[in-house]
Specification:
Shape: globular
Number of helices: 1
Strand content: over 45%
Structural class: mainly beta
Helix content: under 10%
Bound molecules: beta-D-fructofuranose
Distance between the termini: 56 Å
Oligomer: single chain
Number of strands: 32
Length: 495
Amino acid sequence: MKIKSTLFILTLLAFSTLAQQSTEQWRPAIHFTPKKNWTNDPNGLIYINGNYHLFFQHNPKGNEWGNMSWGHAKSKDLLHWEELPVAIPHGKEYIFSGCVVYDKDHVSGLGDPKKPLLIAIYTADYPNTLQEQHLAFSNDEGLTWTKYDQNPVLSINLKDFRDPNIIYHEASKQFVMTVVKPWEYTAQFYGSTDLIHWKLLSEFGPQGDVDMIWECPSLLELPVENSKETKWVLALSSQGPYKKTVGMQYFVGNFDGKTFTNDAPKEQVNYVDYGRDFYAAIPFYNTVNKEAFWLGWMLSWSYGKEQPTFPWKGQMSLARTLSLKHTSQGLKLKQVLKPDLTKQKPSYEAKNLVLKGSKTLSGIKFLQSKTYVIELKVDATNAKQWGIELGDEAKENPELTRIGFDEKSQDWFIDRRLSGVVPAPGFDMIQSAPFIPGEDKVMQLVVDRSTVELLAQDGVVAISSLRFPKKKESVRLVSIGGELRIKELRIWEVK
Ligand code: FRU
């Protein structure tokens, strides 16, 4: 009997390990993933002493959301990440999203005054009861943290009140925290000179897209391209361009140290990214020359649980430098990859190509490496659709991820209807973003295994998308229903 039941248990175990086979073929090479277990939002992004630090919503014990703590990784170049021990473990409270600031003048009076001091302010979540803003400090560049013994530093006795993000506002000589009341579609701004005592400055909202709760806000001052001007941007996570699924939106306006005013009509909505896999992005703090850049969680709450990867679940996007650009549709957020992966000599280059139909870029061995950047500049076309196809060559049931431009609808798109594993219903869809008239038809595409990021028209159009191919892919250049005149095609292998 004993032997029988042991055998039974062993068989069960064998099956459950089989079901949980590792899926390293989908692990991106230059996008951060935790070695194992779950991640969602990036937290506490900061640059200090030559390192970029990424803290992240993390379940240290499992491959699903839970036990929310802050994981930690650092990088010198935003491409190679070294994972470090869990930074802020949960206690009775879950450690939800938040930020890290460098208290270079030790205004908080916490920790060792002789050592550099980092302050984390995050949401402490008491499930279904209360969310308030807590502080922890670190004197060792974020490796270990002490939770402040007089927490909370900010509470308004609300069940949902979260995701603080802090900047230092030079003009008013204070720290400004942006935090949201999710169900009221409202961002609040608080001011402080010591990072401990916070005073309400003003509120913003409801405006823009108010179909889903607001989360993870950030306030940024961004340069306007080709001018000496800067504008303030309030970015936040909410509903994206697809009904009832998450995404990010932004407002462009001014911030005077107290109030944020939106330049656009209240109803106007600006989406950050037209893919379904870009959420909760926040900017880095303390950057060189105050350069603004961020990265986001590259997954969606709609199917996060079902992401078919093991032993990790969840990944970050690449970092993107932010600015604003005057376009025929007004000021638009422009996102450019950081670092620039196209600085080196391209691994493949072609000029003035004329294409009809489809051309497999065969013989280019590096495309098998599955991490590459493709840049395509189009001259003119009378095709109905053109772009890049990633997929196998099968005649029946081919596997395909299609990325490109539709001339009829004037949309950029990533079509993942046939891209491989469909982790949840509705995943298999076309994600599309409207063309901004007056700009060139230029696309930059990064393919890093399961992640695909399209930045088109010099970064004023973004589509970020996952896909989980089952087969080995080739890369094809396609022009459907007409001719495509390509000014320039360049491909870089990312080593
Ligand atoms: C956004 C979010 C935040 C919250 C965190 C919890 O994805 O819901 O609002 O702080 O995730 O993990």
